[in-house]
Specification:
Elongation Factor Tu (Ef-tu), domain 3, single chain, 2 domains, mainly beta, about 200 residues, six-stranded antiparallel β-barrel, six-stranded antiparallel β-sheet
Length: about 200
């Protein structure tokens, strides 16, 4: 479990695809220095298990399913990803509950500076958009963000300069794929309401 308050952007050292369709992802970030084998770290919002931490560098095994359903398969050496350690019971809940299980990939439609802030428009699959509401929460590449506007298949996020500085957003462009996770509470509410209607 995570909060969506990322602890910075990590550099990708390499992504090696295996013959079984999976891959080994290697990152460099100070957060990894305190990790032990078996610890969970969210990478672009995807919950991954550390398998070989060595100082500030660490590796993660990716399933073929993970490569298919997320944007991690498109990473190359030099790419930048958001990282966050798993939530401790004593941590502050400054974002929202993020499971690290990606629901869909969206596409950046627009990302541009407006005044002192930045406007980010993301197009998402219609099934995902069922859970997106104005002033609600959504996780984009692991970042807990507040939805400002919603249309049928696009939602808008306003980004403050601090978020731009400490995440991988500064490198995002129109056309980029981003990992999306909707609010966990919305999923349960939909499930319960569906059950009660039967």
């Amino acid at each position: 479990m995570f909060t969506g308050l990322v602890h910075g952007a990590a550099k990708v050292l390499g992504l090696s695809v295996r013959s079984d369709g999976g891959a080994r992802l290697t990152l460099d970030h100070p957060l990894i220095a305190s990790a032990k084998p078996g610890d969970s770290i969210a990478v672009n919002g995807c919950c991954l298990t550390v398998v070989e931490p060595q100082g500030a560098q660490g590796s993660f095994d990716l399933l073929a399913e993970t490569l298919r359903l997320t944007n991690l398969g498109g990473l190359t050496a030099g790419s930048v990803v958001n990282v966050e350690p798993s939530l401790k019971a004593s941590d502050r809940l400054g974002g929202h509950f993020v499971t690290g299980h990606i629901d869909a990939c969206g596409t950046v439609v627009r990302f541009e500076k407006v005044g002192a802030d930045w406007r980010l428009d993301v197009r998402a699959p219609l099934p995902f958009m069922r859970h997106v509401v104005s002033k609600g929460c959504v996780s984009i590449d692991g970042m807990s963000l507040t939805v400002a506007e919603v249309t049928s298949d696009v939602f808008t996020i306003w980004i403050i300069p601090h978020t731009l500085e400490v995440t991988n957003l500064s490198g995002r462009r129109a056309g980029d794929r981003v990992n999306l996770e909707s609010d966990l509470l919305a999923k349960y509410a939909e499930k319960l309401l569906g059950k009660s209607a039967i």
